[in-house]
Design goal:
With about 290 residues, this protein is α/β, with parallel strands linked by helices. The protein has one domain: Aldolase class I (TIM Barrel), CATH 3.20.20.70. About 50% of the residues lie in helices and about 15% in strands. Strands 1-2-3-4-5-6-7-8 form an 8-stranded parallel beta barrel, surrounded by 8 helices. Helix 2 packs across helix 12, helix 6 runs parallel beside helix 8 and helix 8 packs parallel to helix 10. The chain is globular, with a radius of gyration of 18 Å. The model has no long low-confidence stretch (mean pLDDT about 95).
Length: about 290
C-alpha cells in the first residue's frame, strides 16, 4: 500500500511551540492525578519489563512468579497488565503464569534496532505468537523513516501484522527520541496505525532519549485524528524512562486531556516499566516496598 498518500489525508503535526503549550497545560493539571486511585490504575496499566542481556530462564521464571504472587499479597490492588520479555522467554513466562489471567508481551521484529531482514522479523514474531505471546511490541524502521521511505517502513509493519492472529495485540514502537521532530513523530504515528498497529509506543528504552511528554502529546493528537477519520481506537504506550508515580501521572494527564477518559483503560493505555511498578506500589501503600 502507498502509505505516503494516507499522510496527505491528515492535518499537519502541531508545531514545537504548540506542543510545548500542551505539555505545560498537562503539567499544570498533573497534581490532581497524583493520588492513590490514579496510581492504582497506572500500576494496572504497566507492562512489567525485563529486557537485559543477562536475562535467563531462571531469572525470568523468578520475575514472572513474583508478578503472579502479587495478587495474593495485595488482593485489593490490581496487578500489572502484562509481563514483557524477549521472544525466547515467552514460553518460560507461559509456564510460570499458567492458570492465571496474566498476559504475556514479547518484543520482536529485530528489537531494539529493527535492523534485520524483514523475513527474520516476521518469523521471530510468528514464533513468539506460537509460543504464547498475547501481545507483541515491534520497532518501526527508524532508518527508513529518517530517509523518507515511509511506504517501506509501513509495509514492514503490515507484513509483520499478517503473521499474527487478530486477537494478538500489536504495539509499534516509534523510537521518538531518534525521530526528534513533531512532524516526523506525527507521520510515524499515522502510518503505523494505518498499517495495523493496535498501540503506538514511544520508545524502546535502549537509546539516550526515551519517552518524553512532548512526544506523547504528538502521538495522542495523531491517535485522535486517526480515530476521527477511521473510527478505530488505537492505544498509547509510554515506555523508557517512566520511573516515578509523578511520571505516570503526567502521561495519564496527557491522555486524559487529549483523548479523554474513554482512553483511560488498560485496553488503550499502557506504561512500559520496571522500576516504576515498585514506585507506584510504594506510593499506593504509603511506604517503601519492593515486590516486583
Amino acid at each position: 500500500m502507498e502509505y505516503s498518500n494516507i499522510l496527505n489525508q491528515y492535518a499537519a503535526a502541531a508545531t514545537a511551540e504548540q506542543v510545548a503549550e500542551q505539555v505545560a497545560a498537562a503539567r499544570a493539571q498533573q497534581s490532581k492525578n497524583e493520588n492513590t486511585e490514579v496510581y492504582k490504575f497506572c500500576l494496572s496499566a504497566v507492562d512489567l519489563t525485563t529486557l537485559t542481556c543477562n536475562d535467563s530462564v531462571e531469572s525470568v521464571t523468578d520475575f514472572a512468579r513474583r508478578t503472579v504472587t502479587f495478587a495474593e499479597k495485595y488482593p485489593e490492588i490490581p496487578n500489572v497488565a502484562s509481563i514483557c520479555v524477549y521472544p525466547s522467554f515467552v514460553e518460560t513466562v507461559g509456564v510460570a503464569v499458567d492458570g492465571t489471567p496474566m498476559r504475556i508481551t514479547s518484543v520482536g521484529g529485530g528489537f531494539p534496532s529493527s535492523q534485520t531482514f524483514l523475513e527474520v522479523k516476521m518469523l521471530e514474531v510468528a514464533m513468539a505468537v506460537e509460543n504464547g505471546a498475547d501481545e507483541v511490541d515491534i520497532v518501526l524502521n527508524v532508518g527508513k523513516m529518517l530517509t523518507g521511505a515511509y511506504d517501506e517502513a509501513a509495509n514492514e509493519v503490515e507484513m509483520i501484522r499478517s503473521e499474527m492472529d487478530e486477537d494478538v495485540i500489536l504495539k509499534v514502537i516509534l523510537e521518538t527520541g531518534a525521530l526528534k521532530t513533531p512532524e516526523l513523530i506525527h507521520k510515524a504515528s499515522i502510518i503505523s496505525m494505518a498499517a495495523g498497529a493496535d498501540f503506538i509506543k514511544t520508545s524502546t528504552g535502549k537509546i539516550d532519549v526515551a519517552a518524553t511528554p512532548e512526544a506523547a502529546v504528538v502521538m495522542c493528537q495523531a491517535i485522535k485524528m486517526f480515530y476521527e477519520k477511521t473510527g478505530r481506537k488505537v492505544g498509547f504506550k509510554a515506555a523508557g524512562g517512566v520511573k516515578t508515580p509523578q511520571d505516570a501521572a503526567l502521561y495519564y494527564t496527557i491522555v486524559e486531556q487529549i483523548l479523554g477518559e474513554e482512553w483511560l483503560t488498560t485496553d488503550l493505555f499502557r506504561i512500559g516499566a520496571s522500576s516504576a511498578a515498585n514506585n507506584l506500589l510504594s506510593a499506593i501503600v504509603g511506604q517503601k516496598v519492593s515486590h516486583f
